[in-house]
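wait is this the right file?? whatever heres the structure
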């Protein structure tokens, strides 16, 4: 059965909404959520998804451009990685502040101060981790690096991304060129290429393949990639994610080390670690001001422990659900000789409620879904004096703040642009128990 072709519609766009798209209203009142457009622009939109109450689409032509529009740096692939490349940076900062404010207003919360979104003004080359897909170019009959086209299962060939530290793009091209030399390698055999670098420019790489019999590389071939560490990994093709089923080959130093607030952390390429360390360090400095000396700290949703181990003090409990993150956490605790001061708990935060108590400062940095309801209820029951809440999703953070408002008020708040040229926002609130 032939797939139905979706229409192109002409529309004037209204405003940017929480997910980062710009919304418009079609004749008849149906809403359309658009990538590649800005408020007040008149555009043609190729509809990519049609539902009963709304549509989604991508801008194909701009007739009346916004005064804030700029040419995207990655003209062909920006929609895949960083769809806000089309606006000037001042507008991006303003939109992010407005989205934080809107998220809290939806829950009838007025933030006490003007919203500041911190940035170090580094708009590109800030990412220390990139995951590439693969694409077989039928025209050139060659293998290409690729990203998925936004909103589809299709792929777009790339030479890299302007968001990445340049050493990552260089290593990616080197691996692509190496694979091109083998005439038997096709894109369907490969899953992804995961590359990470530390602040010193050391690069570690993992090539995920779909066949356990994939031919291993010689030491000479890997040396020419210019990386400090490499792993060839078989990943179950039935899983869409790059999961490690079997490590087929390892070369060099496959872990990386970075300092965060002068504390050393070692982490795996595939592990949990911050993408934009300078902005993260500023968030930690701001959070540290609200950690009381001598008071125990409980760090929930703690990842590898970079918050608790840097600003938590001498009595810290770290709770994390991911077993691989906890392995890295324990390794860092041992390396820092903090085993007597820091307790690592492998558990979901909602299953470790006994660690939430009135004598501790509670730090939470949950996933986009926000705090589990049981965690919220335990906080309301035990009433710790202060909750430090860093969030990657102001919408769920505002919801949780509204739940806690019965006993807590906002003492301080601040936004952070961890991911410039994208819609993603981090926001910190300090919640103090009402007197």
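ok assuming it is, sequence goes like this
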């Amino acid at each position: 059965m032939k797939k139905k072709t979706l229409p192109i519609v002409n529309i004037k766009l209204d405003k940017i909404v929480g997910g980062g798209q710009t919304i418009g209203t079609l004749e008849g009142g149906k809403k359309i959520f658009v990538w590649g457009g800005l408020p007040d622009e008149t555009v043609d939109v190729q509809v990519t998804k049609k539902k009963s109450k709304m549509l989604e689409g991508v801008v194909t032509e701009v007739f009346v451009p916004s005064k804030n529009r700029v040419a995207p740096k990655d003209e062909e692939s920006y929609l895949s990685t960083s769809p806000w490349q089309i606006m000037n940076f001042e507008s991006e900062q303003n939109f992010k502040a407005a989205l934080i404010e809107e998220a809290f207003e939806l829950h009838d919360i007025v933030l006490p101060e003007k919203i500041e979104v911190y940035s170090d003004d580094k708009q590109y080359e800030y990412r220390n981790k990139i995951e590439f897909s693969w694409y077989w170019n039928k025209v050139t009959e060659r293998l290409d690096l690729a990203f998925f086209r936004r909103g589809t299962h299709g792929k777009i060939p790339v030479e890299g991304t302007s968001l990445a530290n340049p050493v990552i793009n260089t290593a990616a091209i080197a691996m692509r060129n190496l694979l091109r030399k083998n005439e038997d390698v096709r894109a369907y055999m490969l899953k992804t290429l995961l590359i990470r670098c530390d602040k010193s420019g050391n690069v570690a790489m993992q090539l995920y393949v779909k066949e356990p019999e994939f031919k291993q590389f010689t030491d000479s071939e890997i040396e020419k990639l210019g990386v400090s560490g490499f792993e060839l990994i078989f990943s179950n093709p039935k899983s869409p994610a790059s999961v490690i089923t079997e490590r087929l080959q390892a070369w060099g130093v496959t872990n990386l080390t970075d300092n965060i607030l002068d504390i050393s952390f070692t982490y795996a390429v595939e592990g949990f670690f911050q993408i934009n360390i300078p902005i993260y360090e500023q968030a930690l400095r701001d959070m540290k001001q609200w950690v009381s000396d001598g008071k125990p700290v409980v760090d929930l949703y703690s990842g590898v422990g970079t918050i608790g181990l840097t600003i938590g003090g001498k009595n810290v409990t770290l709770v994390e659900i991911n077993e691989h993150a906890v392995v890295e956490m324990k390794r860092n605790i041992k390396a820092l000789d903090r085993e007597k001061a820091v307790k690592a708990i492998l558990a979901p935060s909602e299953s470790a409620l006994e660690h939430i108590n009135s004598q501790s400062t509670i730090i939470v940095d949950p996933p986009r879904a926000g705090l589990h309801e049981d965690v919220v209820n335990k906080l309301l029951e035990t009433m710790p004096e202060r909750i430090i809440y860093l969030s990657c999703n102001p919408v769920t953070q505002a919801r949780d703040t509204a739940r806690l408002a019965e006993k807590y008020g906002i003492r301080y708040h601040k936004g952070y642009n961890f991911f410039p040229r994208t819609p993603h926002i981090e926001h910190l609130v300090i919640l103090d128990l009402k007197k």
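Residues 89-105 form the longest helix (17 residues). so i think its the right one actually
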